[in-house]
């Protein structure tokens, strides 16, 4: 199955920052005006003519990106929980602020556990995304996934320092 992994467009964290949201609350952020323009431009890509289904991470920024894509393309969508971004705390209960996320991310990048957080490892990300793709591989020949940078890095095998552009498209063949 051909899979197009597409990063969400440019998010605007102003609203969630002003509200003091941390942890999963930050995932409620919307796109910037520029982010909407980027998504509208990418929506013109011919890859959408080939797609039989567009899977979407449950975060607001990915769902809003997908909404821009389907305004111009007749592609059915399905929200898939496990396409979410890397989790710095698998319990979802310990994070209290950005500094803790930064500490867990430093552990993630270096393969250490100094922060005390049980973060997702690269293999954890691959396993959960493959569990999603496995549900579709015998039903479709071409799908898209609106997801996140860490998901794309792991599924494509990119270095953790590789910059993934907003609405960047990466193709993999998944058997």
Structure commentary:
GO terms for molecular function: phosphatase activity. Pfam families: His_Phos_1. This is Phosphoglycerate mutase. It comes from Companilactobacillus kimchiensis. By secondary structure, the chain is α/β, with parallel strands linked by helices. It has a single domain (2-173), classed as 3-Layer(aba) Sandwich (Rossmann fold), CATH 3.40.50. 39% of the residues lie in helices and 16% in strands. Strands 5-4-6-1-7 form a 5-stranded mixed β-sheet. Helix 2 (33-42) packs across helix 4 (60-72) and helix 6 packs across helix 7 (149-156).
Residue share in β-strands: 15-25%
The description of the largest β-sheet is: 5 strands, mixed
Determine Rg (CA atoms, Å): 16 Å
Order of helices and strands: EEHEHHEHEHHEHE
Count of discrete alpha- or pi-helical segments spanning 4 or more residues: 7
| Unreliably modeled segments | none
State the CATH class.
Answer: Alpha Beta
Structural class: alpha/beta
Distance linking N and C termini: 6 Å
Residue share in helix = 25-40%
According to CATH, the fold-level topology is: Rossmann fold
| Overall mean confidence score, pLDDT | 92
CATH homology superfamily: Phosphoglycerate mutase-like
